[in-house]
Design goal:
By secondary structure, the protein is α/β, with parallel strands linked by helices. It contains five helices and ten strands; from the N terminus they run ββαβαβααββββαββ. The protein has one domain.
């Protein structure tokens, strides 16, 4: 699997980031929007992206994945969220789209044989996150976002440069 230690994911493509230290600077500049507002773009697309930075941060996906059944969550990702992600990339290809999560890294599992990334809910049920959000075919482009630490490196999120 590819690894990204830079900031390219903040300027292009879409990401899932679960590291509070990495997410906190993205809260500056009014670039945080709710999942509801993000989904509303499908009906009424804004002229300009929110905030003044290169990154749009979407909050609220995690609770949906926890509350809906895994099948409903995957359907939400596939049929309601993915189309807005694709349109975002078409309209603002020089902006990064980040879905922020408050769960620790262990809530996300990666199958190294298929590059499928899943979300493990509190009730231990599994949501196929990469397949549903990034169309499965994007698995070839699935990249771990890493940060160097004193103990080596740690995964802070996942990134796909472009859906096609």
């Amino acid at each position: 699997m590819r690894e990204e230690s830079g900031t390219r994911w903040q300027r292009r493509g879409s990401s899932i980031v679960f590291d509070p230290e990495t997410l906190s600077p993205l809260l500056i500049g009014q670039s945080l929007i709710s999942l509801r507002a993000f989904l509303g773009w499908r009906e009424d697309w804004p002229d300009d992206p929110p905030g003044d930075g290169k990154t749009v941060l979407v909050g609220g996906l995690e609770p949906c994945l926890e509350l809906y059944s895994p099948e409903e969550a995957e359907s939400l990702l596939r049929y309601r969220i993915r189309p807005v992600v694709e349109e975002f990339q078409t309209r603002w290809d020089q902006r990064g789209l980040v879905f922020g999560f408050g769960k620790p890294a262990r809530a996300f599992q990666l199958d190294p044989t298929s590059d499928e990334m899943t979300y493990i809910r509190q009730d231990l049920k599994v949501v196929r996150l990469a397949y549903s959000l990034w169309n499965g075919g994007a698995a070839m482009d699935l990249t771990q976002i890493i940060r160097s630490t004193a103990k080596g490196s740690e995964v802070i999120g996942y990134y796909v440069p472009r859906l096609s």
